[in-house]
Design brief:
Blueprint (H helix, E strand, L loop, with lengths): L6 E6 L4 E6 L5 E6 L12 E4 L9 E6 L7 E5 L6 E6 L16 E6 L5 E5 L4 E5 L6 E7 L10 E7 L2 E6 L3 E4 L6 E4 L8 E4 L9 E4 L13 E6 L5 E5 L4 E4 L6 E5 L12 E8 L5 E7 L4 E7 L1 E2 L2 E2 L4 E11 L1 E6 L6 E3 L6 E3 L10 E3 L6 E3 L10 E3 L6 E3 L5 E3 L6 E3 L8 E3 L6 E3 L5 E3 L6 E3 L7 E3 L6 E6 L7 E3 L8 E5 L1 H4 L6 E6 L2 E6 L2 E6 L11 E2 L4
Parallel strand pairs: 29-31, 30-32, 31-33, 32-34, 33-35, 34-36, 35-37, 36-38, 37-39, 38-40, 39-41, 40-42, 41-43, 42-44, 43-47, 44-48
Antiparallel strand pairs: 1-2, 1-28, 2-3, 4-5, 5-6, 6-7, 8-9, 9-10, 10-11, 12-13, 13-16, 14-15, 16-17, 18-19, 19-20, 20-21, 22-23, 23-24, 24-27, 25-26, 45-46, 46-47
C-alpha cells in the first residue's frame, strides 16, 4: 500500500548504488539502483528531472565519477531504477570532450531557461547543457581562485530565477605527473553561498553567506546541500556539521540546526551530506561516522512551517549506508482512493498511504481517519453525501458535501482546510486551521489550540470560543452576525468567566473578546456587541 511519496532515496558514495528507505519509519526498503549499474560511481547528487524514456514520468539524474574524461551525469528510470543512458558524458572514441570538460560533477539543477546546469567541482566551473539532449552549450561560470569567487562549487539550486551555489573554498589544480585533478586549500578561501542573478555566461555572483565554523565541526566550513523550506527560507547543509537557515531576502542567519549525532560534546565524529524536505515539511539529512564511514539519516520535525531542533535519528548508524551524501524524495504523486455507495471506513496506514492522496468516499455515512498516521499530510478528501466524519492531520483539504458531517482537527498538526458544504456540520478545532461551515446551522468547538480562521457561512451558527479550558491563542471568526449567530463559553463557571469578567475591546472595526490578559476570540467586522449576548455553560 506504500506509495513513493513515503520513500527517500540515498546516494551511497562508497557503495556506488542508490538505496531506498521509508521516510517516516526509517525502514530499509532495498536497493533502488544496484551497485555500478550503467557505470555508476560516487553517486553524491540525485535529482529528479524530465522524462527521459517516454513513459511520462520524471526520471532520476545522478552525478557520477570523478576523473577527467570519465565524469558524467547518468539517467535512470524514476519508477524502477533501470538504467536509461549517459545524459552528459565524454565519448572516448572521439577527440572532442563532449562533456565540455566536466570533472567531478556535484550539484545539478534545471534552470528557468530549460537548460541543465552542473557544478564541475574539480575544474571550478558551472557547465551548461541542453536540457533535452544533454549536449554541452557553454561554461556558465568559471572560478578564478579569488575571494568571493567560484571556489570548489558544490550544490546548485534555482530560486526565483536566481542560481544559488555552495562553494567549498578550494581551488582546482592538476597534478602534473598523474594528470589527476585535486582541490587545493592553501589559499585559505572561505566556504560560501553565492548567488547569480543573471543567466548570462560569465556573470559575476554576489556573496549570499559566509558562515563561521560550527562548534561541532573540526574547525572548518564546507557548505554542501541547498533546499528551500515551506517558510520561504534557504537551508544549507555544512559537510563539517550543522544545517543553517537563512532569510532568502536579506541573507541573515535565522537558525542553526544541530547535526551532531555521534558525540555528547563537541566536536562531533560525523560529517553531513545533503538535505531534502518531505511532503509534510519535515527536513531530512544524511551523515556518516568519520571513523567507519557508516551512515545514518536524521529527521527534523516542523513547527509553523519550519524544521526545529532537536533531530530524530530516523536511521541509526547502519553498515548498509556507506559514506552517504545524496538524498532526495520522489516527486509527489497523488493516489486515488475510492469508497462505495455504502458506509465506508478509510484509515490512514491501512486503506491509504495518506500522503498527497485524493479520497472520494461516495454515498453513505463514512469515516476517514487521517490523523491516526503521524506523517499523513496534504490529502484531499471529498466526503460526498451522508453523515460523515473526518479526522484531519497536516495540510489536508476536506470537503463535506451534503449531510451533517463532523470535522475533527484535535490531533491534527495544522494548516488544514475544512469545508462543511450543506447540512448542519460540527467542527472540533485544533491549531492553525481554516474552517468553513457552509450552508446550514453549524457548530464550532474551540479547544486548547488556537489561531484558527472560522467562517460560519449561511445559517445560524454557534461558536464555542472556549470549552473548559482557554485556547492557547485567539481564534478569528470572519462572519459573525449579531442576532443570527451565537457565541458561547462552556465551563465558564470553573474558569471564573462571566459577563462581569469578560472584556470586549473594539479595534480597527473588529471586536476582541478577552478574559484577563488572554484574547479568546476576534470577531472581524463586528462592533457594538452586547456582552450579554454571550452565553455561558450551554448544554446541547
Amino acid at each position: 500500500m506504500q506509495n513513493i511519496n513515503s520513500s527517500i532515496l540515498v546516494g551511497n558514495t562508497r557503495g556506488d548504488n542508490v538505496l531506498r528507505f521509508d521516510a517516516y519509519t526509517g525502514n530499509y526498503l532495498g536497493e533502488f539502483i544496484t551497485s555500478g549499474l550503467g557505470g555508476l560511481e560516487d553517486p553524491d547528487t540525485l535529482l529528479f528531472g524530465p522524462d527521459g524514456n517516454g513513459d511520462g514520468k520524471s526520471d532520476l539524474y545522478i552525478a557520477s565519477r570523478s576523473e577527467v574524461g570519465g565524469s558524467s551525469i547518468l539517467r535512470f528510470d524514476g519508477q524502477t531504477g533501470n538504467f536509461i543512458d549517459v545524459f552528459v558524458g565524454d565519448n572516448p572514441d572521439t577527440a572532442l570532450d563532449e562533456s565540455g570538460g566536466l570533472v567531478r560533477p556535484y550539484g545539478i539543477a534545471y534552470g528557468p531557461d530549460g537548460n541543465f546546469y552542473v557544478a564541475s567541482f574539480l575544474s571550478d566551473q558551472i557547465l551548461r547543457y541542453n536540457g533535452s539532449t544533454g549536449e554541452f552549450i557553454d561554461v556558465f561560470a568559471q572560478g578564478n581562485g579569488q575571494v568571493g569567487g567560484l571556489n570548489g562549487p558544490n550544490g546548485l539550486l534555482f530560486i526565483n530565477n536566481s542560481l544559488y551555489v555552495t562553494t567549498q573554498g578550494s581551488v582546482a589544480k592538476v597534478n602534473p605527473d598523474t594528470g589527476e585533478a585535486f582541490p587545493d586549500f592553501s589559499a585559505g578561501l572561505s566556504s560560501q553561498v553565492l548567488r547569480y542573478n543573471s543567466l548570462i555566461a560569465g556573470a559575476t555572483p554576489t556573496v549570499f553567506a559566509t558562515p563561521q565554523p560550527s562548534p561541532d565541526s573540526f574547525g572548518f566550513v564546507s557548505l554542501l546541500g541547498l533546499a528551500l523550506g515551506e517558510d520561504g527560507d534557504l537551508y544549507v547543509s555544512d559537510f563539517a556539521n550543522d544545517i543553517r537557515r537563512y532569510d532568502l531576502e536579506s541573507g541573515e542567519l535565522v537558525d542553526t540546526l544541530s547535526t551532531n549525532y555521534t558525540t555528547e560534546t563537541p566536536p562531533s565524529n560525523n560529517f553531513i551530506g545533503s538535505l531534502a524536505f518531505a511532503p509534510n515539511g519535515d527536513l531530512l539529512t544524511v551523515g556518516f561516522d568519520v571513523t567507519t564511514e557508516q551512515g545514518a539519516i536524521l529527521k527534523y520535525d516542523t513547527e509553523s512551517s519550519s524544521p526545529v531542533n532537536p533531530f530524530q535519528v530516523l536511521v541509526p548508524t547502519n553498515p548498509v549506508l556507506e559514506r552517504p551524501v545524496g538524498i532526495t524524495f520522489f516527486p509527489t504523486e497523488s493516489q486515488l482512493v475510492f469508497g462505495t455507495p455504502g458506509n465506508d471506513e478509510l484509515i490512514a496506514g491501512v486503506d491509504l498511504e495518506a500522503v498527497v492522496d485524493i479520497v472520494f468516499t461516495g454515498g453513505g455515512s463514512d469515516e476517514v481517519d487521517l490523523a491516526i498516521k503521524s506523517h499523513a499530510s496534504d490529502n484531499r478528501a471529498f466526503l460526498g453525501s451522508g453523515n460523515d466524519i473526518i479526522y484531519v492531520n497536516n495540510s489536508d483539504r476536506a470537503f463535506g458535501g451534503s449531510g451533517d458531517d463532523i470535522f475533527d482537527a484535535t490531533d491534527g498538526k495544522g494548516d488544514s482546510r475544512m469545508s462543511g458544504g450543506s447540512g448542519h456540520d460540527t467542527f472540533y478545532l485544533g491549531s492553525v486551521d481554516r474552517a468553513l461551515g457552509g450552508d446550514g446551522n453549524d457548530k464550532f468547538f474551540v479547544q486548547s489550540g488556537g489561531d484558527n480562521l472560522i467562517s460560519g457561512g449561511a445559517g445560524a451558527d454557534h461558536f464555542f470560543i472556549a470549552n473548559a479550558e482557554l485556547p492557547d491563542t485567539a481564534n478569528t471568526i470572519l462572519d459573525f452576525e449579531i442576532g443570527i449567530d451565537v457565541i458561547s463559553i462552556n465551563g465558564a463557571a470553573a474558569l471564573g468567566i462571566s459577563a462581569a469578567t469578560l472584556l470586549l475591546h473594539e479595534m480597527s472595526g473588529n471586536t476582541e473578546i478577552s478574559f484577563g490578559d488572554k484574547t479568546l476570540a476576534i470577531l472581524n467586522g463586528v462592533t457594538n456587541l452586547d456582552i450579554n449576548l454571550i452565553k455561558f455553560d450551554v448544554f446541547i
